[in-house]
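RECORD TYPE: inverse folding
INPUT: structure tokens
STRUCTURE:
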């Protein structure tokens, strides 16, 4: 199952709206077993992992290890349970069930009805971490949100003048590009676009599937020269107020996603519902401070990744998180520490929302 999980991670950021599943086919032998097939969900979500693992092999009597309950419904491809049954596998070991109502136990029931031995729950916690975005989209109608903060030792993202390039070093920035590549989309607010005119693409990582670039702007009151200049290279989606005319952006190739407003700002809950409806499962938010505060305040941030540099900017600098209106520590969102790692001259620390992946 460890190999299947590792294979499934190859699909992170590449297979939405489908889950990033891995599958390994093992034939029993005197030494315990021999891998005869392996697969992971292909870019764009098809073919599925089981189909790829079974391709061109004789799997009769073999055991299939798969990280998610095999699908049991007809969509653009036939059900994976049918492929496993047709291959005459004798056993299927599953990490975790699929909450999609079209599957949700039906895949397991069909396999067992066909006389196949099924075991479920092997390394389930790891599988739920890997596929949290897909699981959240099905169960909570929203994608997983990772908030990235690159700040000074005292939590500032820019000097008093607005200068912010570069607080962290090149190794940290390269790590951020790898994290972008492992998400379906990169999200920023209009203030970040006005201040930095970013491209938000993945660079220095070879040929990769570019994430969707998303800008949250209630009034679309920003320029976006670099985002528009690269629109044929990576998609651009705009989350804006429903009463805002986005046609000039659409004419240049952007996708318009009208959202509800809270005052003059985007309602973060409605925005996440709209992004889930569009198929996204994993969103990497890179600021700014107001957008980060709104997502945290709405309980929508699942993981925080901080890159902290050994530089101090003082109270005059721009804080990494905007005002949240908190009066008590008990009301502040809390996260569990997952890892702390040195990245070049900086420190990366990763935190996860408590109980997010509880089974």
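DESIGNED SEQUENCE:
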């Amino acid at each position: 199952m460890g190999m299947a999980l590792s294979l499934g991670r190859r699909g992170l950021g590449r297979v939405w709206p489908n889950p990033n599943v891995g599958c390994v086919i093992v034939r029993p032998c005197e030494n315990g077993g021999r891998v005869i097939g392996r697969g992971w969900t292909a870019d764009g979500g098809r073919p599925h992992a089981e189909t790829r693992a079974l391709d061109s092999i004789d799997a009769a009597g073999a055991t299939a290890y798969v990280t998610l309950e095999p699908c049991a419904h007809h969509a653009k491809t036939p059900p994976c349970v049918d492929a496993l049954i047709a291959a005459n596998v004798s056993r299927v070991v599953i990490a975790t069930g699929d909450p999609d109502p079209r599957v949700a136990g039906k895949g397991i029931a069909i396999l067992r009805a066909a006389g196949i031995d099924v075991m479920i729950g092997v390394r389930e916690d790891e599988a739920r971490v890997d596929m949290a975005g897909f699981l959240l989209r099905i169960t909570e109608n929203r994608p997983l949100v990772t908030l990235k903060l690159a700040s000074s030792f005292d939590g500032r993202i820019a000097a008093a003048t607005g200068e912010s390039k570069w607080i962290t070093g090149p190794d940290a920035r390269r790590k951020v590009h790898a994290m972008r590549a492992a998400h379906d989309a990169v999200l920023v607010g209009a203030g970040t676009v006005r201040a930095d005119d970013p491209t938000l693409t993945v660079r220095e990582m070879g040929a990769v599937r570019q994430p969707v670039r998303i800008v949250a702007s209630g009034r679309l009151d920003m320029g976006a020269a670099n985002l528009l200049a690269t629109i044929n290279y990576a998609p651009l989606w705009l989350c804006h107020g429903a009463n805002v005319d986005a046609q000039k952006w659409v004419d240049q190739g952007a996708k318009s996603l009208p959202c509800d407003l809270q005052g003059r700002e985007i309602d973060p809950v409605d925005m996440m519902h709209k992004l889930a409806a569009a198929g996204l499962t994993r969103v990497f938010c890179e600021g700014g401070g107001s957008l980060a505060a709104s997502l945290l305040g709405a309980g929508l941030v699942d993981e925080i990744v901080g890159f902290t540099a050994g530089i101090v900017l003082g109270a005059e600098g721009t804080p990494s998180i905007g005002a949240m209106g908190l009066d008590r520590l008990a009301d502040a969102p809390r996260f569990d520490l997952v890892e702390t790692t040195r990245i070049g001259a900086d420190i990366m620390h990763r935190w996860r929302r408590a109980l997010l992946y509880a089974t």
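NOTES: The chain has a mean pLDDT of 92.
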